[in-house]
Amino acid sequence: xxxxxxxxxxxxxxxxxxxxxxxxxxxxxxxxxxxxxxxxxxxxxxxxxxxxxxxxxxxxxxxxxxxxxxxxxxxxxxxxxxxxxxxxxxxxxxxxxxxxxxxxxxxxxxxxxxxxxxxxxxxxxxxxxxxxxxxxxxxxxxxxxxxxxxxxxxxxxxxxxxxxxxxxxxxxxxxxxxxxxxxxxxxxxxxxxxxxxxxxxxxxxxxxxxxxxxxxxxxxxxxxxxxxxxxxxxxxxxxxxxxxxxxxxxxxxxxxxxxxxxxxxxxxxxxxxxxxxxxxxxxxxxxxxxxxxxxxxxxxxxxxxxxxxxxxxxxxxxxxxxxxxxxxxxxxxxxxxxxxxxxxxxxxxxxxxxxxxxxxxxxxxxxxxxxxxxxxxxxxxxxxxxxxxxxxxxxxxxxxxxxxxxxxxxxxxxxxxxxxxxxxxxxxxxxxxxxxxxxxxxxxxxxxxxxxxxxxxxxxxxxxxxxxxxxxxxxxxxxx
Length: 480
Ligand SMILES: *[C@@H]1O[C@H](CO)[C@@H](O)[C@H](O)[C@H]1NC(C)=O
Ligand SMILES: *[C@@H]1O[C@H](CO)[C@@H](O)[C@H](O)[C@H]1NC(C)=O
Ligand SMILES: *[C@@H]1O[C@H](CO)[C@@H](O)[C@H](O)[C@H]1NC(C)=O
Ligand SMILES: *[C@@H]1O[C@H](CO)[C@@H](O)[C@H](O)[C@H]1NC(C)=O
Ligand SMILES: *[C@@H]1O[C@H](CO)[C@@H](O)[C@H](O)[C@H]1NC(C)=O
Ligand SMILES: *[C@@H]1O[C@H](CO)[C@@H](O)[C@H](O)[C@H]1NC(C)=O
Ligand SMILES: *[C@@H]1O[C@H](CO)[C@@H](O)[C@H](O)[C@H]1NC(C)=O
Ligand SMILES: *[C@@H]1O[C@H](CO)[C@@H](O)[C@H](O)[C@H]1NC(C)=O
Ligand SMILES: *[C@@H]1O[C@H](CO)[C@@H](O)[C@H](O)[C@H]1NC(C)=O
Ligand SMILES: *[C@@H]1O[C@H](CO)[C@@H](O)[C@H](O)[C@H]1NC(C)=O
Ligand SMILES: *[C@@H]1O[C@H](CO)[C@@H](O)[C@H](O)[C@H]1NC(C)=O
Ligand SMILES: *[C@@H]1O[C@H](CO)[C@@H](O)[C@H](O)[C@H]1NC(C)=O
Known about the structure:
Elements: H1 2-17, E1 21-29, H2 46-64, E2 85-90, H3 93-106, H4 110-113, E3 120-121, E4 127-128, H5 131-134, E5 141-143, H6 151-154, H7 160-171, H8 173-181, H9 183-187, H10 190-193, H11 209-222, H12 232-250, H13 260-278, E6 285-289, H14 292-301, E7 320-327, E8 341-348, E9 358-359, E10 369-371, H15 372-382, H16 387-394, H17 402-406, H18 412-415, H19 425-463
Parallel strand pairs: 1-6, 2-5, 2-6
Antiparallel strand pairs: 1-7, 3-4, 7-8, 8-9, 8-10
The protein binds 2-acetamido-2-deoxy-beta-D-glucopyranose (NAG) (12 copies).
Signal peptide: 1-19
Protein name: Phosphoglycerate mutase-like protein
Transmembrane segments: 426-451
């Protein structure tokens, strides 16, 4: 035992003495402070953009700055090189602006960084820098809800199988008991919630746990006339209840369909990191923006919850997950052997100074990093890796899914042979369940979808909100 400890101690020393080299990073971020999402057309607040900007700046000082021990190998420090960066967000204002603010922190205006390279001189002697003190334009890819690539960010939307599984949560005894035991607690907030146009006393239940928390949390920050009406302690209880409701809606150990959003996200992460590997480090930094649903589903399927019970809780505004691709040696070129590559998972719970980016072991392991090859096989086990696979599992009628139907590959069983990294156990589980439920499942799924669509089209014109805000049957699965 003692020998083992000593060995671990010395190998630990060796590892820290040997400088590692970061080769690429993929980051997933939640939006900062925003208006309540109960009201469509909600947006990031000024505080929210500051939070995402702050986090982007902190990532700059970790991964981009030349005085950081974690600077990514070969990354451009001051002038953004767009081939090194990939940034994407769902085509929704809150999440697009989240990514923009983050990128503004990652690559601030050039004048403040390096005035010498800010301007370009023409043949006639005139010099020009970008507007806004040398603002840097990082390309940001917005993903519309009907683009196949949207599934990496929002794999829980447009997926009737997820909606159906989430319904099962409301039927569970766990839910029913909480519903009953918290009834009086929720009813006590009628005075604070009653002014919300579509709330009746009967709506004050655990079934609206997130929405009620969100309304009162946002009011506690922004609404002067309601300040102090909800105590810190009440807000804490409301959040804790929202934690359990949202975790239950996004993960269930025995019902893989619940976490399809997290599985597609895992496929997206794998794909981004693999691009860094397959291009030998040309792609250096990927940014994806998304919702807390995706965080929670991923925390569940990657077994982070066994590492710390904190992963059962909703992540803070502007929380981030970082996946580092690195090699244990101090190198000057991308390693030629993939066996020299490792991956480390890190999480930062918001934008506060006190919150640091911390490493956590994935998949219930004990080490804070694992070899790339192990990472790939473990991730494939929990991932949806192609849009075709997603369409089959979800029984989705998204327009891009039609392409797979014409080749006769839409049936779940035949999507098994689809392209990509083969089918995961999780996927097989979903398919097994679907085959059992058969035609009924498909019909029920279509009915949900039909209702969802009708509600969306009903809401959009009435409120004259931007129609690109995505709505789904689950009030909580809306963006972030
Ligand atoms: C890594 O190697 C370079 C030279 O190749 C050296 O300048 C640098 O100090 C080394 N870094 C560490 C942390 O040992
Ligand atoms: C790196 O340099 C910046 C200013 O250029 C400074 O604010 C920061 O503290 C430095 N970081 C380290 C780790 O030395
Ligand atoms: C130099 O060329 C640019 C582009 O043709 C023009 O806009 C600018 O006015 C010129 N500057 C001078 C001093 O002629
Ligand atoms: C999890 O799924 C199982 C099997 O579908 C179900 O019996 C159980 O009630 C579910 N639990 C929750 C909290 O949804
Ligand atoms: C909030 O509290 C203030 C006084 O503390 C009171 O005047 C006001 O009516 C309360 N508002 C609500 C919605 O309860
Ligand atoms: C409140 O309940 C009514 C009746 O069930 C329902 O139509 C309405 O959508 C609910 N409102 C909210 C905000 O959940
Ligand atoms: C602020 O709170 C008051 C009292 O609860 C409420 O009437 C009002 O609608 C709230 N304003 C906003 C913007 O939510
Ligand atoms: C990584 O990318 C390469 C090249 O595109 C591909 O051949 C390989 O299958 C990918 N691996 C994974 C795990 O996705
Ligand atoms: C993030 O912070 C929230 C609020 O304090 C907490 O409930 C949650 O457990 C935290 N998550 C992690 C992984 O630390
Ligand atoms: C999660 O990790 C714990 C602790 O290592 C382990 O006991 C458990 O079997 C793991 N669960 C899954 C689903 O992998
Ligand atoms: C895949 O994940 C399941 C748990 O979800 C686990 O039991 C199994 O061992 C994993 N398979 C591999 C190859 O890691
Ligand atoms: C694919 O075909 C099935 C069976 O004909 C149908 O139910 C489903 O709606 C189709 N999906 C798409 C996207 O066309």
